[in-house]
């Protein structure tokens, strides 16, 4: 078991981070049905974007109305916002900051499980978005991926991009009903039962939408879906992001006077600047490092690895001006877990 003492230094540093986003527009097919489209043109410094998972982000014309939506739970907000802008997030290559700093760590943790394996590994992708990570793990050697997401429109985009490839099975479901959704769709998903159906599971920037109790429940359900010895990798924003509220920063949360412990489970809004200088609105449910540890151990998982992901020298060589403001800062936490045999 991973020594607890090795991760107690996390969650202490101010964060500045930026998520640049290209503009994508929905199109319609000949029958007038809404479809997803993506632009494969080059962006400045070859930056591209994967599926939106990190925070709830809308453009300046669709700002979060905190007064009107104050009574809505996180699930309702997530569904509405992603349904509204799903086609804007269809990507084929990385461009957001987390696609360079966070998701590659997820993929590296799965490399020994997927690459060079003679087994037909089946992967569960909880909160799959438009399928960016699902497509990546198939490239890495996964035989099939089953992806679920709260947003019907994101699932539509994922299916559209997969273009009928049988290696991808996507369906709409809330994460809190993971087992029920899998069992209800087992014929379509080509599984006998949700229990012990998968070799690998991943949840890429999903838990920052859930409360602590919701996260614990989902992790327990993921544990049930894995075969003995199965691997689960998940990524989350670094807990220290709550301290990023300086008004002049390109990333900030509206978290002035909020405490690291006392603000647990609060849905905190903020802004992130794009590479073109415009800003995006975000929301993230704050959790402490101990919240993640408790959820992991209460489910029965063993910790294989934990990494604090951030900017590397390679990133600086790629585009030093873009990455400079978040250099030498912890941006994400990535956990690699195993279900005991």
Explain this structure to me?
With 341 residues, the protein is an alpha/beta fold. Mean pLDDT is 77; it is low at 2-34, 37-70 and 81-91. The chain has helices at residues 74-85, 97-101, 103-114, 132-140, 152-162, 178-184, 186-189, 212-225, 289-299, 313-323; strands at 27-28, 34-35, 122-126, 144-149, 168-172, 198-204, 226-237, 251-253, 267-273, 279-285, 302-309, 332-338. Helix 3 runs parallel beside helix 4 (132-140) and helix 8 runs parallel beside helix 9 (289-299). It has one domain (4-338): Rossmann fold (3-Layer(aba) Sandwich). It is built from ten helices and twelve strands.
CATH superfamily: Vaccinia Virus protein VP39
Amount of beta strand: 15-25%
Structural class: alpha/beta
Q: How do the strands of the widest beta sheet line up side by side? A: 5-4-3-6-7-12-11
By CATH reckoning, the class would read Alpha Beta
Please sum up the structure shown.
The protein has helices at 74-85, 97-101, 103-114, 132-140, 152-162, 178-184, 186-189, 212-225, 289-299, 313-323, and strands at residues 27-28, 34-35, 122-126, 144-149, 168-172, 198-204, 226-237, 251-253, 267-273, 279-285, 302-309, 332-338. Helix content is 28%, strand content 21%.
């Amino acid at each position: 078991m991973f020594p607890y003492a090795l991760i107690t230094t996390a969650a202490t540093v101010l964060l500045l981070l930026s998520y640049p986003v290209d503009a994508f527009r929905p199109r319609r097919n000949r029958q007038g049905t809404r479809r997803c489209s993506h632009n494969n043109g080059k962006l400045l410094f070859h930056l591209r974007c994967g599926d939106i998972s990190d925070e709830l982000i809308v453009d300046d014309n669709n700002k979060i109305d905190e007064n009107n939506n104050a009574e809505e739970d996180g699930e309702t907000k997530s569904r509405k916002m992603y349904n509204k802008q799903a086609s804007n997030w269809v990507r084929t290559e990385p461009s957001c900051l987390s696609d360079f700093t966070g998701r590659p760590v997820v993929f590296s943790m799965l490399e020994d499980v997927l690459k060079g394996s003679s087994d037909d590994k089946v992967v569960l992708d909880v909160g799959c978005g438009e399928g960016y990570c699902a497509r990546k793990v198939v490239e890495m050697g996964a035989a099939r991926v089953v992806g679920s997401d709260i947003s019907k429109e994101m699932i539509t985009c994922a299916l559209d991009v997969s273009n009928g490839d049988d290696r991808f099975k996507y369906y709409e479901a809330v994460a809190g009903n993971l087992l029920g959704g899998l069992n209800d769709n087992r014929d379509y998903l080509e599984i006998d039962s949700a229990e012990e159906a998968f070799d690998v599971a991943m949840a890429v920037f999903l838990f920052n939408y859930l409360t602590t109790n919701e996260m614990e429940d989902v992790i327990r359900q993921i544990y049930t879906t894995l075969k003995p010895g199965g691997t689960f990798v998940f990524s989350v924003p670094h807990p220290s992001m709550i301290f990023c509220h300086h008004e002049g920063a390109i990333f900030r949360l509206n978290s002035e006077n909020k405490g690291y412990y006392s603000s647990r489970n609060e849905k905190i809004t903020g802004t992130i600047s794009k590479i073109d200088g415009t800003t995006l609105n975000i929301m993230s449910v704050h959790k402490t490092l101990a919240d993640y540890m408790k959820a992991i151990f209460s489910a029965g998982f063993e910790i294989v690895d934990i990494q604090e992901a951030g900017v590397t020298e390679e990133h600086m060589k790629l585009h030093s001006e873009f990455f400079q403001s978040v250099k030498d800062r912890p941006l994400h936490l990535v956990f690699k877990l195993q279900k005991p045999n």
